[in-house]
Fold this sequence. Notes:
The protein has 13 helices and five strands. By secondary structure, the chain is of the alpha/beta class. The protein has a single domain, classed as Rossmann fold, CATH 3.40.50.300. The chain has a five-stranded parallel β-sheet.
Amino acid sequence: MDKFQVLYQLVQQLPEQDGEINAQLKEAIARNPSRNLMTTMNFPPKVGGTFLRTALTILLRKNYTATFKRGSYASTNQARDLYFPSLLHFHFASAQKPFAVITHNHMIATRPVTALCELFNIRLVINTRNIFDTLVSLYNHQQKLEAEGKYIDDALFLQSDQDYSAMTEEERRWNLINVGTVWYSRFYASWIKYDNDSKNTEKQPILWSRYAELVEEPRELLRKIVTHVDPKHEYSDEEIQAALDESMKHKASLRFNKGITGRGDAFFSDDEKEQIRTIMARRDEHRKVLEKLEIL
């Protein structure tokens, strides 16, 4: 049976409605292992994902035909989950060098998402950032887009009965705190739970990193990420620095400006900060993890 016949059979075996992967599909993928590498930079917005995915793609080109893809179905907002046909294509794609496919998504750890990560052995990296600084960075980004007359993707954070451009400043601030924080809370809580549930299993571990590492020690952070993503190869200090330097040439278009740590603390009032903390961590065990990750 050639690979096209195999592909046809696999496409008929889509994941189940609840997200679980059926046994036939698991068996078919296991019988046809890939020489390619897949990783997802599953970063929430405004934590340096665009910059880091670019640097990682450049670095992996030493050993792979490295390319960035969304790995999701075309959509008009940031709420992109992994898309089975795209992953299936990446699994079977071939070139002179193996492919390294880097995807960048903002995914909640729903079972359809995690089941696909497990099926295709996708390496997951999640970056974290202090929630106050993150929200302020999001707010400033939206203000900048509006000033430039550009489209504002508000699907994740500013859902209401009116467009962002029609909101008053008071309404924008309310949405930032009460809607944006809920999304970030759900994002982190879902992956913390999945990571905890995956301990002592054969599932790929998640690499947790921090935005502060990107600002203070970018070379060490990129080394940590590439070691997690591609443990088979070694990358020198010079190669890692060269990837960072090449990415830094385009930092404006990559929306990386090394945001000032602590500016969120000054932006929000004491009452607003307490409200954000309450939304982010309703359980003591969750709060402890968020504090360890320097989110709170």
